[in-house]
Amino acid sequence: MLSPLVMATLLLFLLGAAAGLLLQKQPWLANRLNSGFALLGSLAGVIAAIKALAQDAPIDGQIWLLGSVHLDMLSALMLLVITLVGVAVSLYSFAYIREYQGKGDVAIGVLMNLFLFAMVGMVLADNALGFLLCYELVTLTTYWLVKTNPEAAKQSRLYLVMNHIGMALVLVAFWLLCRDSGSLEFAALREHHLAGGLASLVFLLSFCGFGLRAGFVPLHGWLPVAEPVAPSHISALMSGVMVKLGLFGILRVSIDFLGASQLWWGYMVLIFGACSAVLGVLFALAEHDLKRLLAYHTVENIGIILMGMGIGMIGIANQQPALVVLGLLGALYHLLNHAIFKSLLFMGTGSVMFRLHTRDMDKMGGLAKLMPWTALAFLIGAMAISALPPLNGFVSEWFIYQALLSMTKLGTSVVAPLAVVMLAVTGAMAVMCFVKVYGICFCGAPRSEKASQAREVPNAMVAGTLLLAAVCLVLGLGAPWIAPFVSGYGQALVSSHLMGQMSVATGATLLPLDSSQAILSPPVIAITLLGLFLIPLLVVAIFKGPKLGRRHAGTPWACGYAYEERMSLTSAAGWLLHGLVLALFILMAVGV
What we know:
The structure is a single chain. This protein has 592 residues and is mainly α. It is built from 22 helices and four strands. The protein has helices at 4-22, 27-55, 73-96, 105-124, 128-147, 153-181, 186-191, 196-214, 223-226, 232-257, 263-285, 290-317, 321-356, 367-370, 372-385, 392-410, 415-442, 449-452, 459-477, 479-491, 522-543, 575-591; strands spanning 59-63, 67-71, 504-506, 509-511. The strands form two sheets. Strands 1-2 form a two-stranded antiparallel ribbon. The chain has a two-stranded antiparallel sheet with strand order 3-4. Helix 1 packs antiparallel against helix 4, helix 3 runs antiparallel to helix 4 and helix 16 (392-410) runs parallel beside helix 19 (459-477). The longest helix has 36 residues, at 321-356. The N and C termini lie far apart (55 Å).
């Protein structure tokens, strides 16, 4: 029987949308109810997802309109992703919606609730009809949310056209699946085995169709166009959650329904993922529009997740349980991690825009002193997306590295060594990009009058961003205890006879499948890094003389900005240096 909490989640989202529609003439109350019902529904969904994941057993039921529903481990993980981000976004929207007062604020709240309802319904649906109806509702609600910006008519049309092309491809894939199996129910599709050629056709159709929703290269055209013009808390839902529905669809069809039976499917996914990762971060480096930069980083991170998925599919086709475990662990963990830190970064950007009303990084600067809580949360998000230890982005990319290194030892393909180099280059460029972003936006001196007059955003917005920053820390430091569960959710997708060799969790240390590889312990890394920060303070305390003990006040050095404006770095500067560093890094990686 389906959990009452899941039913409550869907019902509360619908009540939020209905309350907004009925109270349009009282926008203050309508906005509060929109955000309140979205928050309650998301909280109910988080609790339901955690309970389902802890029980480690599928739950079946029936919901009117959706038909049969099935809450397996993959669906429960996706439910957690949607509703956990939903909690932060709903909390954030209590204050952020003031930015749209009189400019469609009530409509945004109504559509946000319908958006959350459609995404939850899609991951719960256990039949083709309910799945496709919710898939289309996700597309339509997102289209109207983007269109709430009166200057985004062209962007919203591009999004609608590209996603309906994807919808057409997915429809054909499901028609072939359901026609051959004789049923619309997913249970029948799991039991039915398609012939090799037809299975490959279904895989290609679903990969391209869902790929248009996921936004990896070269199917990413709508993503850096539509995401930046949406309200920032909706951009967080789009980039952090909605694009993951495309990855969910690829996993559901290629592994759950088709069994990842063909080896070339996995290599195709891996190659597309590696190319998307590198090209996404390259596009991001060239941006000075903060939200477009973050959108391109979504393209990058979707590529990283695809790499893990591809490795898992290769492991299934090759009967290599080690690759299955590590590949799917890295993919699913990074899917969860990216949802958290990317939503955090979009909400942090929304907070900056709330005060400065610009997305241009060259008009920011000096915000760390004026908006300290926003700066702290954004810094944590920037470190996480840059895969710096001990935060969550580092942990999931570590597992993908381990999976790729395990592939290289098989010696069957040159793809894995190249993918290792591409992932390393991607990581290096991501660090470069976010050093630039944080330095230009939050450090130095203000670069505009509005930046000099900025102040911290309302408490609800601060709470929403700090909540996700805390989750980044928990998913990073708690990885030794969380990762074995995530690994189990990936294994639940795969036939049990392939799972003879499992990853080992011992105490607070994660052991890779190959014991010759390094041991990962995020808490130990965190303690070590903290110790390294304390060493300079200790040295100063021991050796300081009378001069070191004195305090001097003066103008801080800000890259020459106070003396000569031309000496100040901008978001477009440093391309020659970036190119030289990147070229050196690539030569070193290839040489290794």
